[in-house]
Amino acid sequence: MNFQVTVLKILVSYPDGFAMMAELKRDMAILATSGRDWAERTKRLAARVPALDIFSQGLVERLNGGWRITEEGRAVLKLMEARPAEMRTESAVPPAEPPAAKQASSLLAARRSGRSQRLQRRRAARKRARAKAC
């Protein structure tokens, strides 16, 4: 079973894309014990995006004791689930790099600047919280 694909599939099944850790663990346990079909399916999906990293690519966010799938995460999951025929009709000319790799690299580049800004805001908030505590 591919952990990252499973997380994306679980999160997308929730109405707002957010699940608490307890819910994620419960759903993951159910899927992990559901048989070989799930494990084989997640391996096939993961093979379409070999460099998948749901956190560093900004596909999943950690929020308030849980995780939430982002719009980028939904797009990558949709790309992974596209049937080969659907992928071929999207572009008549084969791309120089696989669409999944191109999508992942563009997502990563787009998220880098936003991520550094979020990190700076988090650090500043922690610093303010420490100052208040003293």
UniProtKB/TrEMBL annotation:
Residues 112-134 have a biased composition (Basic residues). Residues 99-111 have a biased composition (Low complexity). Residues 86-134 are annotated as: Disordered. It comes from the Bacteria. This is Uncharacterized protein. It comes from Bradyrhizobium japonicum.
